[in-house]
Amino acid sequence: RPDAAGLLRFHDHEPAQDDFRTALVAGLSGVSKSIPCRFLYDASGSLLFDRICELPEYYPTRTEVGILGANAAEMAAVIGSCAQIVELGSGSSAKIGLLLDALDAPWSYVPIDISREHLLGAAQAIQQQYPALRVEAVCADFAQEFDLPANDGGGARICFYPGSTIGNLTPSEALAFLTQWSARLGRGALMIIGVDLRKDASILEPAYDDAAGVTARFSLNMLARANRELGTDFDVSRFRHRAIYHPDTGRVGIDLVAQADQIIHLDHHRFRVAEGEAIHIEDSWKYHISDFQALAAKAGFAARDVWTDDARLFSVHLLEV
Ligand code: AVI
User: Fold this and answer.
1) Closest C-alpha to ligand 1, atom 5
2) Mind listing the pLDDT tens digit for each residue in 6-17?
3) Pocket test for ligand 1, best of 49, 50, 57, 251 (most atoms within 8 A of CB)
4) Buried b vs exposed e over 96-131: b needs ≥16 C-beta within 10 Å?
5) Most buried one in 55, 132, 139, 231, CB count within 10 A?
């Protein structure tokens, strides 16, 4: 084993900054209006999302942490010795400790995130907490092509993708994403992925429209962000957050619905939004366990194991390339 642990390494792939202006013009120009959900996460949106994760109605975060905590030893036993843990969208690296503590002598941790500051702060904290670990922070858009740091620790590579973030892709986008990652990880690699499960609308709709209104503020922040950054003139107080579960497809659809006619100005563009018209901002797809395993199989992953909570709200899958 190389003995160069204890010193944080940083690989900056300088991910292209997404162009909010271009996306907004495109999204407001169509017959049905939409804004891609990745624009929810500016500094204010990220803080609001952290608050969502603490809400009583938003079960995914604490349920996934509970599943990881309760089953980490069993996961470690199934996995055996592992060398490199690659985390996709690592953010504050809040969940990785559960695996690092349980797995058999992981040699390196590779957090990947598009937000440079968030990534570096979290990677430094992990490096301090685990001085013997080789931490290689990668600033990149993990949907784009880039080389992973070499896995030369002599064991398996494990990819960790928690949070049911895959649920914000459509099933066909999720298939393309998993196919890309099964190829990139290579034969014998493993993936631990959190996937939210289908359930009754009476649980799902409050999870995406909480009583304290934090999720509504998170959604509306997207329009406030456009006003701040691009000089648009959305009357944010005249939009209402709406979350509807569609049980036929397993999709929670999230929209901002105009409460009055508005003309939105952006540079030389004028966009008319009629009273009652929806701007679609996010989908959160929910899966049956067997449907997710079938999707993963199409993408080149075999299902090795799956863990859930007692109420079967959430699932954590172990997949193998
Ligand atoms: C990040 N993602 C998995 C969240 C979800 O549950 O789909 C985003 C979210 N949107 C509103 N609440 C949470």
Assistant:
1) 284
2) 678 999 998 887
3) 49
4) bebbbebbeebbbbbbbbbbeebbbebbeebbeebe
5) 139
CA distance 252 to 297: 24
- Interval between CA 77 and ligand 1 midpoint (Å): 31
Closest residue by CA, ligand 1 atom 7: 284
In which residue are the tokens 């429209």 written? 209
Q: Which amino acid is at 293?
A: Q
Token pair of 122, please?
A: 């979290």
Please state the pTM of the whole predicted model: 0.93
Q: Ligand 1 — pocket residues by CB below 6 A?
A: 52, 60, 163-165, 167-168, 208, 215, 282, 284
Q: Which two tokens stand for residue 314?
A: 């959430």
| pLDDT tens per residue, range 78-130 | 888 878 999 998 888 889 999 999 988 788 999 999 888 889 999 999 999 99
Confidence at residue 1, expressed as pLDDT on a 0 to 100 scale? 45
**Is the reported ipTM for this assembly greater than 0.95?**
yes
Residue 117's SS3 state is: helix
